[in-house]
Amino acid sequence: MEKKVTAVSENTAGELGTAGMMRDSKFKQLCLSGKGVTKVFGHGKRKTTAVDNVDFEFYTGDLISIVGESGSGKTTLIKMLLGLTSVTNGEIFFMGEKRDISSRSKKKEYWKGIQAIFQDPYSSYNIFCKIDTVLLDCIHMRGGRTLSKDEKVKMMREACNFVNLKFDEMTNKYPFELSGGQMQRLMIARIFLLRPKILLADEPTSMIDACSRATILDYLLKLRDEIGMTIIFITHDMGLAYYVSDRVYIMEKGKIVEFGSADEIILNPKADYTVQLLNDIPKIHDPWEFSRNKKHQNV
Q1: Burial class of residue 28 in the structure, from the number of CB atoms within 10 Å of its CB (0-12 exposed, 13-18 middle, 19+ buried)
Q2: DSSP alpha helices (H): ranges in 83-147?
Q3: Could you tell me the pLDDT band of residue 78, with boundaries at 50, 70 and 90?
Q4: 50, 66, 83, 281: which sits with the fewest CB atoms below 10 Å from its CB?
Q5: What is the CATH classification number for the domain harbouring 149?
Q6: What is the pTM of this model?
């Protein structure tokens, strides 16, 4: 698979534009980082360390992938970054300052800058809220409560158009009346309205078909290019990580065992676990061997 590369000319900052400046290393700003972040569940013999003393640095406009198998601690780390799960030890820093989500109001303010798209579109919505309410909540969260009804409808229509949904066909419907792909596109329409600094995408394409998967990725990359948003993908797909990422972090049993540029990690892996993940990718043109066949051959 050929890696998607965006060429940036060495011109002035004005010619680069806002999103281009954020992706140019000369203008990158540290937006989210952690030192010794740890999450422990349970006590005594039942204690489980889901995330174990991890450090990370994510920069504005970058697209980062956190890769690991199920149970490696990826989703727990994302929940801590969102403030949905408490941190046992360590510190998280947002836009260069120690994160403070000690009150409900502070947490709501924090969420204006960081949002998420989750794996299962069917469990991401309140089943009692219509699509209009879902989108209006985003407008209100960004301070648009006093806008006129026409202005709000215009913003909702623009957000739906961005992900190729027709607002007139969405209005007065409930999310469960949509397909899985449409619900994920609606989630991106929410992000279009909220315009957070950071988007956490936890396996956003794993439960939808291949055609919808490519479309969702295209919309996310388009949104990143348009507003200079940092996107953090959570995935077990090394091919996806290589194709879309600027930097890749590899997680195994709660620890980050390797990180670097996508080319460094995929083309020149150092950790044994990274090599294992790469070797587990099926190769279409190589003969496949199955343990049952090997057993019969040896009889």
Answers
A1: middle
A2: 104-111, 131-141
A3: very high
A4: 281
A5: 3.40.50.300
A6: 0.81
